Amino acid sequence: MSGKMMGVVYHGKGDLRFEERDIPTILDPRDAIVKVGMSSICTSDFHIRNGAVPRARENVILGHEFAGEVVAVGDAVKKIKPGQRVAANVETFCGECYFCKRGFVNNCVTGGWELGCRIDGCQTEYVRVPYADNGLTVIPDSLEYEDVIMISCILPSGYFGAELAEIKPGDVVVVLGAGPVGCTTMMCARLFGPAFIVAVDVIDERLEFAKRHGWCDVTVNPGKEDLDAVVKGLTDGRGADSVIEVAGGKDTFETAWKVARPNGIVSLIAMYEEAQSLPLHLMYGKNLTFKTGGVDASHNDTLMKLIEGGKINCRPLITHTMPLNDIMHGYDIFEHHLDGCVKVAITPYER
């Protein structure tokens, strides 16, 4: 297969261009080529654009959230077949190294965040997926692309954040950030049976959106309300059992450890563009446990089953849909939260 395609290319800090590129080909026998059926824009794409992701390479097509149809596979690919509909995994992993064998696949020595960061990603028409047997999950016939597009990144991020938080039945969980990742975090936190999920954001529309869909029980805008007082009111003055920091704002890390109860868990899955302060002298005696992480790619089979079984529904997150032709407009409305935008779905290029 040869020819040209359109895609969003990173040319350095602040410089994204929608331009023509070559259709990819198999480079390794473990590769697959996927025709993109639907993709999306992630907040981390803005981190790359802003120069805040040191591992990102210039002249790379952005994007890592996508689903599509397999059109070609390498000779060593065993599980994935041409013609199958698949959802991609943001993490590339070999399955054989020290970390992969222990389940820490996002730390794979030959992988990690590759797609849309170090190699061409999905905000285009075709994608080469390395280690395809690990990086692609077959989509059940009962599901559509809209159902599974979030399984590439923000859903496993939310699941990992909830898992790290060690949520127990009856707990009070605070989720800092009610954007797309915050919403998937709330969905996944709900699976562990907490008594209350408290959503925190400075954008009222996001809080209302999360509450309307039943992903949280209590909402707090810290610019208007006293978060500490609300949480202590739910916990007999103790503080939150678990706090999941998703927002990555200038002061949200500080908020996370302050609102947690003594001996609580602080789960950090946010991406920060600036260094954070860990004032141990102020938190001495709280005996907090901090856990950090991002996307954990090892749960996608489980997440696909949860979606298929109706336990998780990410479809409401898609508030806007447009063809690849208009993706730069999609970047604008997603970045600036225009027209109630939560998540943008990108459909194939229209010629």
Automatic annotation (TrEMBL):
InterPro entries in the record: ADH-like_C (IPR013149), ADH-like_N (IPR013154), ADH_Zn_CS (IPR002328), ER (IPR020843), GroES-like_sf (IPR011032), NAD(P)-bd_dom_sf (IPR036291)
Superkingdom assignment: Bacteria
Stored PROSITE patterns: ADH_ZINC
Pfam families (alphabetical): ADH_N, ADH_zinc_N
Cofactor(s) listed: Zn(2+)
Domain Enoyl reductase (ER): 14-346
Similarity comment: Belongs to the zinc-containing alcohol dehydrogenase family.
Protein name: Alcohol dehydrogenase
GO molecular function, one term: oxidoreductase activity
